[in-house]
Amino acid sequence: MGDRNENLFRTALDELGAVLARVDEGRIDAACSMLADAGRIVVYGCGREALQVKGFAMRLYHLGLPVSVVGDMTTPPLGPGDVFLASSGPGETSTVLTLMRVAREAGATNLLLTAQAGGSAARLADATLLISAQTMANDQGPQRTSVLPMGSLFEGALFLLFEVMVLKLKALTGASPEAMRARHTNME
Fold first, then answer.
1. CA within 20 to 30 Å of 38's CA: 57, 70, 100, 116, which one?
2. How far apart are the first and last CA of the chain?
3. In 3D, which of 55, 21, 62, 34 has the Cα closest to residue 127?
């Protein structure tokens, strides 16, 4: 690998580390407790954020938590005691805003992951995990701060944050590695 590639990897990893170092540990723990205690969990994200959210849903399932993804035919209705987890890096995604309103009207708790503490989605959230990373909302011109394209810094931070949350949830729920593995699909 050439020096240029090594520098790109180092820069990208440094950026991810800096973003994750700014995420409030207390809020991560509170979000994990919220998920562990939920009657039902339904998750949603748009675009590449959706890929990270769906990966997290898979791990929640492996942990034995009652999770569904918006859009799946088996997604149950939400109500009191349930959690709607949504990702909206820019904080203004129209679908996320609509679904958060539906969840709120049903009595569910809205847990938001966003880069924009002042966005419309944050105002609808009961709890927010702020991930201060560049998204597609601020990736051009003088606002651009990341070496990574478009919203990749936010999406990469989501992946790592979710993996740490899985570790915390594993401890909270007492899920063993064997039980998690036993829940992995055999249909692949």
1. 116
2. 34
3. 34
Q: pLDDT tens across 85-95, in order?
A: 999 999 999 99
Q: Which residues of 108-120 are buried (b: 16+ CB within 10 A; e: fewer)?
A: bbbbbbbbbeebb
Which pLDDT tens digit goes with each residue over 102-137? 999 999 999 999 999 999 999 999 999 999 887 655
**What beta strand segments (E) does 25-126 contain?**
41-45, 67-69, 83-87, 109-114
Q: Assess whether 92 carries a catalytic annotation.
A: no
How far is 30 from 11, CA to CA, in rounded Å?
31
Of 105, 155, 178, 188, catalytic:
155
pTM (two decimals): 0.92
For 77, the 3-state DSSP assignment is coil
**Average pLDDT of the residues in 38-46:** 97
| Residue owning tokens 């409030």 | 24
- C-alpha angle 78-113-144 in degrees, rounded to nearest 5: 150
